[in-house]
Design brief:
It is an enzyme of class 2 (transferase). Residues 200-227, 388-415 form the PLD phosphodiesterase domain. This is Cardiolipin synthase. With 475 residues, the protein is an alpha/beta fold. It folds into 2 domains: 42-98 and 296-474, 2-Layer Sandwich (Endonuclease, Chain A), CATH 3.30.870; 101-274, Endonuclease, Chain A, CATH 3.30.870.10. Helices cover 34% and strands 22% of the residues. The protein contains 15 helices and 20 strands. The chain has an 18-stranded mixed β-sheet that branches. A two-stranded parallel ribbon has the order 10-16. Strand 4 (125-130), helix 5 (137-151) and strand 5 (155-161) form a beta-alpha-beta unit. Helix 10 (364-371) packs across helix 15 (459-469). It starts with 15 loop residues before the first helix and ends in a 6-residue tail after the last helix.
């Protein structure tokens, strides 16, 4: 059953009446959404059969072998790397691309600084896709910057989600439009403004920036002043209401320089064209891109229009084949039965499974729905931690120290069935070590939830969890 999107990150003053009307209206929309059944048989392919792409196109078998041999020399346990390369190569979708440099960006300040540098260095085109772009200090800074680059002759194309930007006045975008920036509202809520079918339940949750086809940013960070502060302050903040902008937001982004940026470019342009946006013009959006590093990266996008979510299939397959560790950090954790079973089975076979989840959220319904699964997971031997002193919004995973992903995808039904999402998968022990260090920092700022403690929680909390769990598939 499709229902109207649960509104995340948009709980601001004046929203409630409008949202209530939209939610009531959306109950008239009926449809079906399902997830694919993933069987753990992906290891039938060998690493030698993997097709890999570089800056000049598909690599030969000999070139691919050279890349993989070099990667294995850098990794102490090549067996784990072999397995995850085979699994990733077996999942259909975009290609594995070599020759990339990947930079891990923790929280808003580091991300915005790197995005600003890339935007100001642009020479030809800038494509930005975001769920939220707020009319606040950060939003205005990016607006001014995009206008300045457009006036310099760089073509700027901006796509934002109609629900995500529900609180942003449409007048905010007008100066950009007047300057020549091409602006596209994804699936407008106003039915008189739709360019295709009115699909109010399908939202664009992606956070993507592609500059000149050679640099891409992807992760969980929107354009908003809630990201103005870092979340690892040494000074412990007092507990505040989750809606307060004083609460630091904990999030993660990656910057990828190299040929895989073209794969992210394809995803942007495909969505733009499906939304019937303005003609993007002749701007050589797919130039030749030289290698910038040695990392293997896959750009994965999912859409409700697809037969199934490739991101979901990738997650499940990687978890099925984990041998030593699964470390997940996720803001909205409402797992379906197959994902829960995959995690429990991994713990049963001796894999160290740990989850870092929010202790507070901008969606209390999602928070309690998430907690409704704690008992089941804790009993299976999965360790759960709740991040303190920050609002966790990050969506990352590191498996066996070699398979990593950063993106916009939450581990919930909405992300896998109803949303446009985007992730980068990085196959690298070096980048995996950076991800593990970041995960450890989050663990250090988190409180572990033990089974004994959880069984002693108040009845009132259990009732909230049960009530929220009823809506789990619709969140």
């Amino acid at each position: 059953m499709k229902t109207f999107a649960s509104i995340k990150n948009t709980s601001r003053t004046g929203m409630h009446a409008a949202l209530l009307a939209l939610i009531l209206l959306s109950t008239l929309l009926v449809g079906c959404g399902s997830l694919p059944t993933i069987v753990p048989d992906m290891d039938t392919q060998s690493a030698r059969s993997i097709e890999m792409k570089g800056g000049r196109g598909i690599l030969s078998e000999q070139q691919t072998k050279a890349v993989l041999d070099k990667l294995k020399q850098q990794n102490g346990d090549s067996t784990l790397l072999d397995r995850h390369l085979a699994v990733e190569g077996a999942v259909t979708g975009s290609p594995l691309v070599t020759g990339n440099k990947v930079t891990l960006l923790i929280d808003g300040p580091a991300t915005y600084a790197s995005m600003t540098q890339a935007i100001q260095a642009a020479r030809y085109h800038i494509n930005m896709e975001t769920y939220i772009m707020e009319d606040d200090e950060v939003g205005r800074q990016f607006s001014d910057m995009l206008i300045a680059m457009q006036k310099k002759g760089v073509q700027v194309n901006l796509m934002y989600d109609s629900v995500g930007a529900l609180n942003t006045p449409r007048a905010f975008f007008q100066p950009m439009i007047d300057a020549g920036v091409k602006v596209l509202e994804f699936n407008p809520l106003n039915p008189t403004q739709v360019r295709k079918d009115w699909e109010v339940n399908q939202r664009d949750h992606r956070k993507l920036l592609v500059v000149d086809g050679k640099t891409a940013f992807v992760g969980g960070i929107n354009i908003s002043s809630v990201y103005s502060a870092g979340s690892f302050s040494k000074r412990k903040s007092r507990k505040r209401d989750a809606d307060s902008k004083e609460v630091p937001w904990r999030d993660t982004q990656v910057r990828v320089d190299g040929p895989v940026a073209l794969e992210f470019q394809k995803l942007f342009i495909d969505t733009w064209n499906k939304q019937r946006g303005p003609d993007l013009g002749e701007h050589n959006y797919f130039p030749k891109v030289a290698a910038a590093g040695g990392e293997i990266v896959r750009a994965i996008g999912s859409s409700p229009d697809d037969p199934y979510s490739v991101i979901y299939a990738t997650f499940i397959s990687a978890i099925h084949h984990a041998e030593s560790s699964i470390y997940l950090t996720n803001a909205y954790f409402v797992p379906d039965p197959q994902l829960r079973d995959a995690l429990k089975n991994a713990a049963k076979r001796g894999v160290d499974v740990r989850l870092v989840l929010p202790s507070t959220s901008d969606s209390s319904l999602v928070l309690y729905a998430s907690r409704s699964f704690y008992q089941e997971l804790l009993e299976a031997g999965i360790r759960i931690y709740e991040r303190q002193d920050a609002l966790l919004h990050s969506k990352t995973a590191i498996i066996d120290g070699v398979w990593s992903t950063v993106g916009s995808t939450n581990l919930d039904w909405r992300s896998f069935v109803f949303n446009q999402e985007i992730n980068a998968v990085i196959l690298s022990p070096q980048f995996g070590a950076q991800m593990k260090n970041m995960f450890d920092r989050d663990l250090g700022a988190s409180k572990e939830i033990t089974l004994k403690e959880w069984e002693q929680r108040p009845v009132s909390e259990r009732m909230k969890e049960f009530g929220a769990s009823v809506w789990a598939r619709l969140l």
